[in-house]
Structures are given as C-alpha cells and as structure tokens.
Amino acid sequence: QVQLVESGGGLVQSGGSLRLSCTASGIIFNSDVMGWCRQADGKERELVAAITSGGITNYGDSAKGRFAISRDNAKKTAYLQMNSLKPDDTAVYYCNIRRTYLTSTDYWGQGTQVTVSS
After folding, report:
1. DSSP per-residue string spanning 1-46
2. 91 in Cβ contact with 39 (< 8 Å)
3. How do the pLDDT tens digits run along the chain, 118 residues long?
4. I need a surface site. Which of 1, 40, 70, 85 has the fewest CB within 10 A?
C-alpha cells in the first residue's frame, strides 16, 4: 500500500518562498506520476504541478511560472519549490501519486497547510 506524507507548509508573507516535500512509502513504479494539488476554502481542488520519474513536468495555471516541481526517485520524494507567493496561494496542498500500470488509482497524502499573508 502506498502512503504519502507531506511537510514544509506554514505561514509566510506575500513574496516569500516555501519548499514542500512529499515522501512516499511502499512500492513506487517508474510509471507512477507524482504531483501536487491544492484546495482553498470554498474552491475546487486544482492541479499545481506533476512530474514523471523521467523528469517530464506539467504545471497548472496557478503555478504561473513561480513554482517548480522536482523528484528524487531514490528517496521516493517529490518537492514543490514555491516562490513569489501570493495570498491567493493560500490552500491545503496535497501530494498525489497517479498510478496507471494495470490500474487507474490515485493516492493522496494528508495535506499540508500553506498560508500567505498580505
């Protein structure tokens, strides 16, 4: 069973930076895509960024060139570097693994709160 644990959230001022980490336990396949989604109060969950084991990335519009996702396959860890943070970035950020090998399954972490003050 895959389990995901996020860390690195907190309270920052507008314009600041945070680096989120997501560490997986269990078996991770090379075909698994790791990513980050976020959900603000009263809003729909949205994609922030995703990355394959080979380093191919995909960013949601919310990233706006300010965020960068990376991945350490040996450590089974994904990172989200967030720069130039804005109050609109305030949300719970969830780590996700999308597995498509012989299945169609999403795994989710518990989430980490990011709050950006104005």
Report:
1. --EEEEE--EEEETT--EEEEEEEES---TT-EEEEEEE-TTS--E
2. yes
3. 899 999 999 999 999 999 999 999 999 999 999 999 999 999 999 999 999 999 999 999 988 789 999 999 999 999 999 999 999 999 999 999 999 999 999 999 999 999 999 9
4. 1
